[in-house]
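Open question from group meeting: does this chain pack into something compact, or does most of it stay loose? Before anyone orders reagents, we agreed to write out a predicted structure and look at it together. Recording both the input and the output here so the notebook holds the full record.
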Amino acid sequence: MATAPSRKFMECLYFAACKHRNQRRHVSYKVGNATEQNQFDSLWFLKDQQETPYVNHVINVSTILSLEACCADEAVLMAALLHDVVEDTNTTFEDVEKYFGPDVCGLVREVTDNKSLEKQERKRLQIVNAAKSSPRAKLIKLADKLDNLRDLMVNTPKGWTEERREQYFAWSKEVVDNLRGTNANLESKLDAIFRQRGLM
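Structure tokens returned:
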């Protein structure tokens, strides 16, 4: 018998959708290359001139964890849905703990950048703190990087030069290198991207 998502998970999904409702991205997603072993083994991305909801990204991260990392830890899947909610909306950690409990909130804390710091310092800390993260937080960070890099392979954000795009790939590899030993499947898929960019 199929297991339905829990009520709390669906509340979390709805919460993320509401909080990110006014944010948009310029890329759309489709599933391709289905295999018997895992019909979602390969996710392909297409450019889309229409703005798509940013919440697609957090759903993708949670989906990658469930289907590609084979993660069944609901708190991790919920924290993936909420991984940008404090950083990018008016939500507080207190809100996350109130509605979804201390375990989910702790994970969200681990994957949230301190927006009071300069951007370059936040990026430096992502590299430094990656190795210090808990194994569950590392999973979320890997899935987040995988979704972002798949996006960037086919879509250059407005205002970005090609140099900045390549710098993002290189910086992401530094972060991922400090997350290694967490999930072989996600790391293999990230390495495939890094090889395509000449970083391995």
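Observations to bring back to the group:
The radius of gyration is 16 Å.
The longest strand covers residues 42-53.
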